[in-house]
Amino acid sequence: MGPYYQTTTQGMGNFFDALYEHPLLMLVFVVVVIAGVFHFWRKKKFQ
User: Fold this and answer.
1) What is the tens place of the pLDDT at every residue in 1-47?
2) Quick one: CA dihedral 28, 34, 37, 39, positive or negative?
3) Whole-number Å distance between alpha carbons of 30 and 6
């Protein structure tokens, strides 16, 4: 358990636990975030 438990809600703690227990979920989460940022950046750039 890391120090982030002191400032997060129970739901966020469970979310972090799920990511640490399933590294593939963390990879999917990172890919989704990068894809979302790229999508909005590209959309904004070409308007």
Assistant:
1) 555 555 556 777 787 787 778 889 889 989 999 999 999 888 777 66
2) negative
3) 24
